[in-house]
Amino acid sequence: MIDLIFLRVLPYCALGALLGAAYFSALGLNVRLYAGSGPAWSAPLLHLARLLLIGAVFTLCARQSASSLLSSVAGFELTRKIAVNRQVLALGEKS
Q1: Side-chain half-sphere CA neighbours of 51 within 13 A
Q2: Which of 13, 14, 63, 79 has the fewest CB atoms within 10 Å distance of its CB?
């Protein structure tokens, strides 16, 4: 029975991880756009698109079940932890 639950939850965790990777890649691009390397309208538009995408995906997961929402958020948080740790290591090497 636990195997069945794991197999039902794993795709949502992978979805959350992929969503997190896309979200933080777009965040890096968004930072560059806000810093002035693009048109003025593109940074707020990308910011809005990032938030709408994550809200839509998590809403769809929540409509499936609570376990799918929790596992997708867990995948997203895992990706967030990796992204933050990579940034901390990169900043530590530069100083």
Answers
A1: 6
A2: 63
* pLDDT tens sequence for the chain (95 residues): 667 777 888 999 999 999 999 999 999 999 989 898 778 889 999 999 999 999 999 999 999 999 999 999 999 999 999 999 988 888 887 65
| Structural domain boundaries in the chain | 17-94
Cα–Cα distance measured from residue 47 to residue 79, given in angstroms and rounded to the nearest whole number: 19
3-state helix, strand, coil in the chain (%, to 5): 90, 0, 10
- In whole angstroms, give the CA distance from residue 53 to residue 45: 12
| 43 Cβ contact partners less than 8 Å away, ≥ 6 residues apart | 30, 33, 34
Q: Which residue has the tokens 């930072």?
A: 31
